[in-house]
Write the structure tokens for this entry.
Amino acid sequence: MYKCLVIEDEPLAQQVLKKYIADHPMLQLVAVCNNALEAQQLLSSEKIAILFLDINLPKLSGIHFLRSLTDAPVVIFTTAYPEFAVEGFDLDAADYLMKPFSFERFLKAVNKAMEKLKPTTLQAGQPVTEQRSIFLKADKKVFKVNTDDILYCEAVDDYVRVITIGEQYLVHYTLKKLIEELPATNFLRVHKSYIIAKDKIKFFEGNYVKVGDKDIPIGASYRDEIYTRLKDKKL
């Protein structure tokens, strides 16, 4: 579980974040603070993993508060003011949520935050046991999906069907958004309607690639890059 803290002075935004955090199986809400000064003592006593931080706060802005922290949690900014976005990302925020935001957009931000929280180094001789994963909302539930299990993703109208080794999920996403969350080292856009896992490729034939039991077309605009990478053995 990832402990979360919300610093937000708007009651409606507080309620939205409380609900979204409660609906996520890996998040635990520790507290909701109305301003940054209230949160100062709590941050010194609790190990907070993810901080949902409004920018336009009374007494001290979220940006100035974050700059004052020596050991800050991973931050997701929440605000109604897009002009602060650049400054927010300069502070290495995981994401920037523009109010009002949907649960799907919230989920994307949390996926980014959790990715930043993963260890980047290993002790000598330590085995790699942690699988990369993302959280996807489908059928009114939030599923933890190991990216190592994904075969391919297919656009279906306003949704994406994510096909894994044992399951499939229909999520209200676009391929463009989804590929931003998948590990770039193993996922490849081969068509306007398809993303494939490179380690699940069986073979190429003509303008198709075989992934699992599926023949997936290679789009004309993607063809040159794919076959150049194939020729150079970079797939």
